[in-house]
Amino acid sequence: MQTYIVLIACVILLLCLFFRVPVYISVFAAALTYFLFQTGSSPAIIAQRIGGGIQSIPLLAIPFFICAGIFMNSSGVTKRIMNFCNVVTKRMTGGLGQVNVLLSTLMGGLSGSNLADAAMEAKILVPEMEEKGYSKEFSSVLTATSAMIPPGIGMILYGSIANVSIGKLFVAGIGIGVLLCISLMIMVHFISKKRGYQPATKEKQDPEEVKSAVKQAILPLCLPILIIGGIRIGIVTPTEAGTVAIVYALILGIIYKELKMSDVVDGLKESVATTASIMMIVGGASAFAWVLTKERIPQQLTEVITSSISNKYVFLIIVILFLLVVGMFIEGNAAMIVLVPLLAPVAQAYGINEIHFAMLFIFVMAVGGVTPPMGTLIFVTCGVTKCDIKAFIKESMPFYIMLLILMLGIAFIPALSTGLVNLVY
């Protein structure tokens, strides 16, 4: 009977998401369904589980990194990094497309949210790319896809749920981010060559221009080193690293004389609103995850899968396909809170490295952000650029093939995820 109640709760969750009910309400409704039908369980427990789900020290890092990213956009950091990217890539085929990719990669190490990065670049870069002859569809797809650099918020959530070192996840994210960056730059090169998207210039680089760009960008580019280095040598925890990032962003704003008091107030308001939306999802999903744990669903799932599948790589392929489908319909953070407690123990039973599985999980869920019908990165980017959704999806086809190859590479080559971690740790 209890299993049927869990199934009914899952069906309600899927139906709510299908009818575009807000994610936090959908997972809350699924959890509430269980408590209403389950005899002997007080609905008051759901309030306790929601509160318990968000009362986590590691999760405090989320508002800090969100706030740091917003302050950096207001303090002139983004502008200086973009200028640096322009100088570095100006002689490459598809110059502005390469700038888009490199900017996303560098900002991925500074901002905690890929949605914020996509919105910012859609406002700044896409209009400029269109002026230079790039199609709106290509510019929008590239902006959304390059914003997939593994986000800090996703790593913080995964680490807190699965009890995995957040510092190690940050380091592993660098390797995956560089891999995605190189792949996208190669893709941009061939597409630009085919369509005639020219470099910004064919003239030889001016050493003084390069020196000036590096000088302007050096302080912002030091932040990821400070964060990861501080965590690695034990000076700060991931949560404390978020506060360091805020202070660093404020100091840069003072140095550059571009951060106004009104920007600070607006940034704090935006940070509160963004954090609240994430935490409502975390709270509701935590309650539903508790239901699954109480009914021993993870243990049952582990037994069924390990008895049916003997090869861990077959399991990883099934996980990729499953997460791709889930990512098409369910917001990544909610899916992570519900599915990580289910799938991480199964991966452990197969002897899969916890960092390897974490990076595969986070990357595949990020891919869900650029796949229809519910891809959040699609709607954020197209909402800013006014790109037609159908045209966006059609333009995305070569990128989907590239992302599938990358997913298989991450699954079958553990060193892509763990190599840098082993070097640093």
Summarize the structure.
By secondary structure, the chain is mainly alpha-helical. The chain has 21 helices and no strands.
Strands, helices and their partners?
Elements: H1 2-18, H2 23-37, H3 44-54, H4 61-74, H5 77-89, H6 95-108, H7 114-131, H8 136-146, H9 152-162, H10 166-195, H11 207-221, H12 223-232, H13 238-256, H14 261-294, H15 297-308, H16 312-329, H17 332-349, H18 354-367, H19 376-385, H20 389-412, H21 415-424
Number of helices: 21
Low-confidence stretches: none
| Structural class assignment | mainly alpha
The H/E string reads HHHHHHHHHHHHHHHHHHHHH
Largest sheet: none
Oligomer: single chain
- Rg: 22 Å
Strand residue content: under 5%
Percent range of helical residues? over 70%
Q: Whole-Å distance between the termini?
A: 47 Å
Residue-averaged pLDDT:
81
For the secondary structure, the number of strands is 0
Q: What is the 3D form? A: globular
Task: Sum up the structure in keywords.
single chain, 425 residues, mainly alpha, 21 helices, globular
Task: Explain what you see.
The longest helix has 34 residues, at 261-294. Helices cover 80% and strands 0% of the residues. α5 packs across α11, α6 (95-108) packs antiparallel against α7 (114-131) and α10 packs across α18. The radius of gyration is 22 Å and the shape is globular. The chain is mostly helical and 425 residues long. The chain has helices at 2-18, 23-37, 44-54, 61-74, 77-89, 95-108, 114-131, 136-146, 152-162, 166-195, 207-221, 223-232, 238-256, 261-294, 297-308, 312-329, 332-349, 354-367, 376-385, 389-412, 415-424.
